[in-house]
Automatic annotation (TrEMBL):
Keyword Oxidoreductase appears in the UniProt entry: no
This protein's name: ABC transporter
Swiss-Prot/TrEMBL keywords: ATP-binding, Nucleotide-binding
MF-aspect GO terms: ATP binding; ATP hydrolysis activity
SUPFAM superfamilies attached to this UniProt entry: P-loop containing nucleoside triphosphate hydrolases (SSF52540)
Database matches in PROSITE patterns: ABC_TRANSPORTER_2
Amino acid sequence: MFYILGPNGAGKSSLLKAVMGIPGYNVVGGRVLLNGEDVTGLKPCDRAARGLALAFQTPPRLQGVKVGTLLRHICRKSGCDPHEVAKVVEVEHLLDREVGKLSGGEGKRVELATVIAQRPKVALVDEPDSGVDVESLAVVGRGLRALAETAALLVVTHSAHIARHLPPTRVCVLHGGGLRRCGGREVIEEVFSYGFSKLV
Ligand SMILES: Nc1ncnc2c1ncn2[C@@H]1O[C@H](COP(=O)(O)OP(=O)(O)OP(=O)(O)O)[C@@H](O)[C@H]1O
């Protein structure tokens, strides 16, 4: 469970998109290694086939696609049960709803469900706590804990509210173009006490 904390605009989402290989977010230095394999030149679908998945900060607002259809489609490939996945993040009541018409918080839970459904080896999770109410945050935390049983998690966040439900094992601050001030969860307390700029 690796957290990257950083202020708005630090490049947290860009980092995850570059790791996932999203077009427009090219790696200009370094490499992306997945279980020792260099995947830097691979398309997102090829990275996904190797077990990498990304939960976007702002989930794609798919128009005309129902949540249940989306989960069934992903589960056909991965061999999961869409209803079981929906249960984990409590979105069973949304299965007949259109993805593009969900509220922000509902969309975050469904986005997490799509990542759980992929059964990834490594899950990149972008701001799981943003726009999520306190009760939904507990649900998101349970979903992430379930995911963490079988996958390595890299979570980026500027607030770290999710740490109440999902304690990190390692935390680094992304600031000024690099990873700084790495440690355990005490780094989160330091960020809350001193802010990002004074810390690095
Ligand atoms: N596709 C893009 N093209 C050009 N600039 C971009 C693009 N995506 C992001 N940026 C810029 O890169 C910087 C980092 O953005 P990014 O979304 O990675 O930050 P972040 O750390 O996730 O911030 P936040 O906490 O506000 O979500 C910002 O200044 C942003 O405007």
